[in-house]
């Protein structure tokens, strides 16, 4: 669908991409990987048409639609959730405005018999047909359905977007992209501000609803679950692997080892040849052989080993001064904003040396609890900070608070005091800001580089309680691994607020879940917690649908799964009356027929699209513009059918639950 040809990008004499070529196909699930600053976000912006390359081009069909989710939200605080979601249908509003202008022109003109007037009538007619084709009449229903599907309530629709946390704003952007139904989704760090449940929803969405996907993410579990192709950007070049990230890591290592062996063999050959030339250079009897070897060396295509960034992040937290046995004791802690209860009666104790995680949906109070511990906001109840506790705090928005006008060195120099000032260069070097990098302006740093710079603040004085609020946002995978090991080795107490399952795995021994106005303690690691949540959800379902008593079971006829005919009028164990059972059976038959009908429609549309794509693959078909229009119309019909199938299946599922 999209062809990238000879792409090159250079900034201030530095080459970011050098003659890159590759293709994005239908249904591709591509992960763009590489270290911070390699150019992953730049690549997405170029494909999205937001940035021009130095040379090369991006080719795509005119009717191809691209949806781009940037790292930073561009929502305006002047719109409500509904108004922001409506931006997905800007093309409808533009078309409606154009029709209105043409209708006004028709009403004002009097040259009814002229060719121009007839042409104007034709344009109005075509525009109205186009408006009807794209489903302008029911876009409001589409918006409501999508927002509710993403967890919003109808009460949220008229709330201002500024009232929502970063994770919920991300969902608004995802809703807009879903409503646009793009052919290609470009996602830049989509999980940065999402909670674990939202990430799992996004994984499911990308697997079942999206067409082609190109994403940048440092969440290893997320990209492994979503992608099937990995494109590595390294030192201006790309390496394309038709596998997911975990397999890519293995294949990349094999590639590097093969290159090194070939390089070493060639270097030995070159040394032997140069030694022969040097030895016999001045012997007339060997002049022919010497000249032959010189030409051989000149023509030799040198094997190059891909440059590997050997700069190493040396992150080690200073030894923690000894604190009291219990750095944090919370008893009946509560917090409300007006009538909105965030959490109540939170009671827990964190022991010295423990490493715990705060998890839960966005807006449920994780960062709020951190602010309570920091003493930044008032609360009810008792919160005791232990003896000699010194807190090091990394805020969620720490990187964005940096002064962009300063250099890297100036940023640290302004906060360092005492003897540490003499070691600033060494500290910056340990964080891969050595040499000229320390003189870079903050405004030119990537998100990961800014996060590393903000992390240095934690090293400027010894602490014994580390509170890290989303510390992995924007960090590449290697840096995350280094940070994880540094936290493991830290001999103090750690509270981590994070949604990154891979990062938390093997790091924390206790999980505090925030949700529903409560804070619940779970012993064990993050995957133990996720497994326990599944079990609890199953128990909740069992409580909502209690099994009938044994006596009733004997009187109940066996039911065929998902079948309307399973409802027997003589079901003695049923709480429904005979008339209610008949009505439920009728509704089930109707729901089953609706699902079957739309499945048949989807199969027919798939067959028509496949037939049309075969024609488009021929030279004659590729030149026929009407085929492209038909293809676009069929794709829209298929999308509509898929939506209707989703709704019909959900209705059927609800009726089947009533029938159990």
From TrEMBL:
Any one GO molecular-function label of the UniProt entry = transferase activity
What stretch or stretches form a coiled coil here?
581-615
**Bias kind Low complexity: ranges:** 557-569
Give the superkingdom in one word.
Bacteria
User: Which stretches of sequence are listed as region Disordered?
Assistant: 540-576
Which residue intervals define the domain ABC transporter in the entry?
A: 2-260, 328-541
Q: Keywords for this entry?
A: ATP-binding, Coiled coil, Nucleotide-binding, Repeat, Transferase
Which SMART domains did the record assign?
AAA
InterPro entries documented for this protein: AAA+_ATPase (IPR003593), ABC_tran_C (IPR032524), ABC_tran_Xtn (IPR032781), ABC_transporter-like_ATP-bd (IPR003439), ABC_transporter-like_CS (IPR017871), ABCF_ATPase (IPR051309), P-loop_NTPase (IPR027417), Val-tRNA_synth_C_sf (IPR037118)
Q: Which family is it part of?
A: Belongs to the ABC transporter superfamily. ABCF family. YbiT subfamily.
Protein's name according to its UniProt entry: Probable ATP-binding protein YbiT
């Amino acid at each position: 669908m999209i062809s990238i040809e000879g792409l090159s990008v250079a900034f201030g004499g530095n080459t970011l991409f050098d003659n890159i070529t590759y293709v994005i196909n239908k249904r591709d699930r591509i992960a763009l990987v590489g270290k911070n600053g390699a150019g992953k976000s730049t690549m997405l912006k170029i494909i999205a048409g937001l940035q021009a390359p130095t040379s090369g081009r991006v080719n795509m069909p005119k009717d191809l639609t691209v949806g781009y989710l940037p790292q930073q939200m561009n929502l305006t605080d002047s719109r409500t959730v509904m108004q922001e979601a409506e931006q997905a249908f800007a093309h409808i509003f533009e078309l409606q405005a154009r029709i209105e202008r043409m209708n006004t022109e028709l009403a004002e003109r009097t040259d009814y018999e002229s060719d121009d007037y007839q042409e104007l009538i034709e344009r109005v007619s075509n525009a109205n047909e186009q408006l009807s084709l794209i489903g302008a009449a029911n876009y409001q229903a589409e918006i409501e359905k999508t927002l509710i599907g993403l967890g919003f309530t109808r009460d949220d629709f008229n709330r201002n977007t500024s009232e929502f946390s970063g994770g919920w704003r991300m969902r608004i952007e995802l809703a807009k992209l879903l409503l646009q139904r793009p052919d290609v989704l470009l996602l830049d760090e989509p999980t940065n501000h999402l909670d674990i449940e939202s990430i799992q929803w996004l994984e499911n969405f990308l697997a079942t609803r999206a067409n082609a996907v190109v994403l940048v993410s440092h969440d290893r579990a997320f990209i492994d679950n979503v992608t099937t192709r990995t494109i590595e950007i390294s030192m201006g070049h790309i390496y394309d692997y038709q596998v997911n990230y975990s397999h890519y890591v293995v294949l990349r290592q094999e590639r590097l080892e093969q290159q090194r062996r070939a390089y070493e063999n060639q270097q030995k050959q070159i040394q032997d040849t140069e030694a022969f030339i040097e030895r016999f250079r001045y012997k007339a009897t060997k002049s022919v052989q010497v000249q032959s070897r010189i030409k051989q060396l000149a023509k030799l295509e040198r094997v190059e080993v891909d440059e590997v960034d050997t700069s190493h992040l040396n992150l080690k937290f200073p030894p923690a001064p000894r604190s009291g046995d219990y750095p944090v004791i919370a008893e009946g802690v509560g917090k409300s904003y007006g009538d909105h209860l965030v959490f109540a009666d939170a009671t827990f104790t964190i022991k010295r040396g423990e490493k715990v995680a705060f998890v839960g949906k966005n807006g449920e109070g994780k960062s709020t609890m951190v602010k309570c511990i920091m003493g930044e906001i008032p609360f009810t109840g008792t919160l005791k900070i232990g003896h000699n506790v010194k807190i090091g705090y990394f805020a969620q928005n720490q990187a964005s608070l940096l002064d962009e006008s300063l250099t890297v060195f100036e940023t640290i120099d302004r906060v360092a005091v005492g003897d540490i000032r003499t070691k600033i260069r060494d500290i910056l070097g340990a964080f891969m800001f050595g040499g000229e990098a320390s003189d870079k302006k903050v405004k030119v740093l990537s998100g990961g580089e800014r996060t590393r710079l903000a992390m240095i603040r934690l090293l400027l004085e010894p602490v014994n309680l580390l509170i890290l609020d989303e510390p992995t946002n924007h960090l590449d995978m290697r840096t995350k691994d280094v940070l994880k090991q540094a936290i493991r080795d830290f001999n103090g107490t750690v509270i981590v607020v994070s949604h990154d399952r891979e990062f938390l795995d093997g790091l924390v021994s206790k999980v505090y879940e925030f949700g529903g106005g409560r804070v619940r303690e779970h012993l064990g690691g993050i995957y133990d917690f996720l497994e326990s949540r599944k079990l609890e959800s199953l128990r909740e379902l069992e409580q909502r649908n209690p099994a009938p008593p044994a006596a009733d079971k004997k009187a109940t006829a066996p039911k065929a799964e998902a079948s309307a005919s399973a409802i027997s009028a003589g079901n003695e164990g049923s709480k429904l009356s005979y008339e209610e059972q008949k009505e439920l059976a009728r509704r089930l038959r109707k729901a089953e027929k609706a699902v079957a009908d739309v499945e048949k429609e989807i199969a027919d549309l798939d067959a028509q699209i496949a037939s049309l794509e075969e024609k488009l693959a021929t030279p004659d078909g590729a030149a026929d513009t009407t085929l492209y229009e038909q293809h676009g119309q069929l794709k829209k019909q298929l999308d509509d059918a898929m939506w209707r199938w989703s709704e019909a299946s959900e209705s059927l599922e609800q009726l089947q639950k009533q029938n159990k």
